[in-house]
Amino acid sequence: MLKRILAIFIIATFFLTPYAHARDLKVGYMNMRTIFAEYDRIKKYNEELESKDTEIRKEIEGKAEGLRKLRDEMELLSDTAKKERAPEFEKKVRELEEFRRRKVEEFIARKDEMFKQIREDIIKVATVYAKKNGYDMVADEAAFIYFSEKFDLTQEIIKELNK
């Protein structure tokens, strides 16, 4: 009988110990979407990206306008002259497409790099905040089905980021 009680006690202790530690766990979460929407640096990056996008569009449009002029000039030529100038026109079309493709790739790479840096900044600030304030765990809200709002650190993280 004593062995059975001792065994039950040991088993209960083994299974209940994690729950006792969980009560002492300080946790929080943050909403990355909200942080991305309210982080001042993102607003600056978005303005920079919009400016770059406008610049690229103007460059492409300028080159396309040159092609339209060349095409219009070719329309006035004889069939023989059109055939002679066709390779030049086709080359310019390929160059424009290559230019457009390269600019789009550069734009996407720059955008990806900016947002990678932003994400790293957010994680760094959240980690420092969590350590400074004694948190054992901070996660993105998207990782949970339910979490009480009292654990929401989103605004505190935004304040730290925007300092």
Description:
The protein is mostly helical. It has one domain: Skp domain (Protein Binding, DinI Protein, Chain A), CATH 3.30.910.20. The protein has a two-stranded parallel ribbon with strand order 1-2. It is rod-shaped.
Give the topology.
Elements: H1 2-23, E1 27-30, H2 32-38, H3 40-75, H4 79-132, E2 137-140, H5 154-161
Parallel strand pairs: 1-2
Helix pairs in contact: 2-5, 3-4
CATH architecture: 2-Layer Sandwich
CATH superfamily: Skp domain
Structure summary, number of beta strands = 2
Which regions have little confidence, pLDDT < 50, spanning 5+ residues? Answer: 2-9, 11-17
CA radius of gyration is: 30 Å
Give the C-level CATH assignment: Alpha Beta
Number of continuous helical runs: 5
Percent in strands? under 5%
Outline: rod-shaped
Return the domain count: 1
The N- and C-terminal alpha carbons lie at a distance of: 65 Å
User: Numbering strands along the chain, what is their spatial order in the largest sheet?
Assistant: 1-2
Largest sheet: 2 strands, parallel
Helix content: over 70%
The arrangement of helices and strands along the chain is HEHHHEH
What value does the average pLDDT take? 85
Key terms:
Protein Binding, DinI Protein, Chain A; two-stranded parallel ribbon; 163 residues; mainly alpha; single chain; rod-shaped; 78% helix
Q: Quick summary of this structure?
A:
The chain is mainly alpha-helical. 78% of the residues lie in helices and 5% in strands.
